[in-house]
Amino acid sequence: MTNGPGPVGPMGKGPNGERPRQRAGMPPGAQQTEYTGRYVVLLDQQEPDRGMEALRSSVGISSVERVRGAEPGAAELLGRTDVSVVFDELGVAVVDVRPDQRHALVTTAEAEPTIIATEPERVVYASVITEPQRTLTGFFPTYRSDDDEVSRHTRAELATSLGPAWDERNTTWGLQGIRASWSHLTGSGVKVAVLDTGVDTDHPDLTGCVEATASFVSGASVEDGHGHGTHCVGTVAGPAKPGHAPRYGVAGEARVLVGKVLSDQGVGSDGEILAGMAWAVAQGARVVSMSLGAPVEPGELFPQTYENVARRALRRGTVIVAAAGNESRRPGFVAPVGRPANCPSILAVAALGKDLGTAFFSCGAINGAGGEVDIAAPGVDIFSAAPDGTYQTMSGTSMATPHAAGVVTLLAQAHPDASAADLSTRLLSGAHPLAQPGADIGAGLLQAP
Question: Which of 289, 384, 398, 424 is catalytic?
Answer without folding.
Answer: 398
